[in-house]
Amino acid sequence: xxxxxxxxxxxGNWKMHGTLAEARALASAIVxxxxxxxxxxxxxxxxxxxxxxxxxxxxxxxxGLGAQDLFWEDGGAFTGQISGPMLKDAGCRFVxxxxxxxxxxxxETDETVxxxxxxxxxxxxxxIVCFGETLEARxxxxxxxxxxxxxxxxxxxxxxxxxxSVLLAYEPVWAIGxxxxxxxxxxxEVQAHIRGRLEEKYGNGPASCAIILYGGSVKPSGSxxxxxxxxxxxxxxxxxxxxxxxxxxxxxxxxxADREEK
Length: 262
Ligand code: PEP
What we know:
Strand order of the largest sheet: 1-2-3-4-5-6-7-8
Radius of gyration: 17 Å
CATH superfamily: Aldolase class I
Order of helices and strands: EHEHEHEHHEHHHEHHEHEH
Shape: globular
Number of strands: 8
Largest sheet: 8 strands, parallel, barrel
CATH architecture: Alpha-Beta Barrel
Number of domains: 1
Bound molecules: phosphoenolpyruvate
Structural class: alpha/beta
Strand content: 5-15%
Number of helices: 12
Mean pLDDT: 95
């Protein structure tokens, strides 16, 4: 069966990188490449400090703006936190939730992920919910068990209507920032399982429309064959998104694979 028709979705997570000048230069270079990538949905996810600056450069380009995290309350005495309404006000349409670096270094759990997913939806933001197994879990044959637990707890009790606003990103922890990419078969096996799980929970329509990204050391080489897989709808790119040429090349490779499907 061919993959459900969706535009390739390519998101660049800049992590904790970039002065304002660097963010401007990177965003401008991606905007310059945008006409060649017109068939894809492109999303930039800069650090909080650069959101407004990058958002200004993206105005009218069709490239989306996202944030790397949010807090689950909408406002109040929570020093250091950023809320959904603040991100919305800064021009964001998307927000990462549960990135493995947040889980690893900042105590993010499936329970806090569920609260943040709710907060994002309440603010009219689409959460991109990240999950993936550790190397230890994979080697112990517990990948699917880990994914199911993260999905069940992290998505909480969302209704079928709400899941349409949620994107999922399968990011095996052993592949993030390590230079080690999952093979297309490894990524597809998990992502097909995820779609099946969504179908059981929310029905065929929401499951086939769901955007499921792959993330983990995505580079231009290899992105074509990953995108060819039926259940890979795009990429969450970390390191390579800091290089406008590499990021644009990843999107171009996904578009090349996508065109062949048509
Ligand atoms: C990420 O930050 O989500 C990511 C996948 O990083 P990298 O591409 O560097 O592995």
